[in-house]
Amino acid sequence: MAIDSDGTRPRVRGWDALGFACAIALQAVSAGAQPEEPAASPPVRTFEIAGYTIPAGERRQIQLQVSESFAGSSVDLDVVVANGAEEGPTLCLIAGIHGDELNGTEIVRSVLDQTDPAVLRGVLIGAPIVNLHGFRSRTRYLPDRRDLNRHFPGTSRGSSASRIAARLFDDVVRRCDYMVDFHTGSFHRVNLTQIRGDLEQKSVLELARFLGVGVVLHNPGRPGTLRRSATDAGVPTVLYESGEPLRLDPVQILHGVEHVQRLLSALEMIGPLPDAPEPAVYRSSSWVRVDHGGIFVPRVHLGESVEQDQVLATIFDPIGGERALLLAPRVGRIIGMAVPQVVIPGFAAFHLSWAGPGASAPIEDGAPPDDVDDTE
Ligand SMILES: [Zn+2]
Question: Using CA atoms, how far apart are residues 318 and 221, in angstroms rounded to an integer?
């Protein structure tokens, strides 16, 4: 539970200063839960990570040198470690692997800021901005155009992406018992808040349920993604998707903080919170592509359930009238979609999910087209 040093109220900084109502709402939500009493005896256990020693009941911000700039200066990954006063699991929150995906960065920062190690069981580790190069240039990629989330677990003598991946994986990921990797849609697409992971693995499915997100999609991720590499290495990991790139969405950030608090509660790292409702689980998904160039105007909303042959969008000729309608190929739910924009034939416009069975090509063949796979 997010408790102030006096143990009586949640701490919320940053967003209330900006005047967002979400911070007020967060206080109202958090106030309903009862914190655990701090440990009665002096803490004695410590947590070792990347050469640092974190005393029990304390929070530290540590730096891992992951790269260097073109000017030769050090590029350091900031990691916040809250070592709880009592024993418990180690939960890692990773964000900013894609430098233009901001919601997760703010969710991780908020959670760590609100976590009081004196009333925490276990260890909470947060890395809000993994791809510092991309974050500084407001882009998804690294300077050499590589996608960091294709290079895990990485090697220390590989490409720039592989070296950054290896440092994060060896020094942080291998210390985690559970991990959540935060992302958003990309390239002018927005994602419904959802969890993705290898639901065939019981520990991953349990992690997904603990978060209390209403939508869960079976998608292990292609080789090289953090969630797949970490899960393969014995660290159950899920992807948390919410929103669109280059935008801080205060409502989605508030929900993200609440979801992590539910997870902390379910792992008994903080006091009890009400059980989350069971999510809708989708085993399959596929992208619906447009067949005509022009101006793309959606006719459905994110999260909407659609019928077969329902009109999803209209494509207009930029200097004429209506060119075509884009129809739903099957019954499903819209879990991701493009924002209104100009498109050409083949553009992936709507991410449609359904309960399954019969996984779609992007899940089965493991080698989906980049424009589809890069939307997470
Ligand atoms: Zn991403």
Answer: 37
Q: Give 97 Cα–ligand 1 centroid separation in angstroms.
A: 6
CA 289 / ligand 1 centre spacing (Å): 21
Per-residue model confidence as pLDDT tens digits over 342-363: 999 999 999 999 997 654 434 3
Residue whose C-alpha is closest to residue 154's, from 141, 166, 171, 142: 166
d(CA 363, CA 197): 11
Structural domain total, the chain: 2
- What is the reported pTM? 0.85
CA of 199 to the centre of ligand 1 (A): 20
Domain that holds residue 177: 39-280
Residue 320 confidence (pLDDT):
87
Residues 272 and 295 in one domain: no
Residue 93 CA to ligand 1 center (angstroms) comes to: 14
Find the 244 Cα to ligand 1 centroid distance in Å. 10
- pLDDT confidence band for 88 (50 / 70 / 90): very high
Q: How many Å is the maximal CA-CA distance in the chain?
A: 76
pLDDT tens-digit profile of 231-274? 999 999 999 999 999 999 999 999 999 999 999 999 999 999 98
Q: Report how far ligand 1's centroid is from the alpha carbon of 185 (Å).
A: 7
CA of 328 to the centre of ligand 1 (A): 26
If asked whether residues 267 and 301 sit together in one domain, one would say no
DSSP state, residue 234: T
Ligand 1 centre to CA of 311 (Å) is 29
Domain containing residue 344: CATH number: 2.40.50.100
Same domain (yes/no): 311, 174: no
pLDDT of residue 47: 97
How far CA 338 is from CA of 253, 305, 347, in Å, comes to: 20, 16, 9
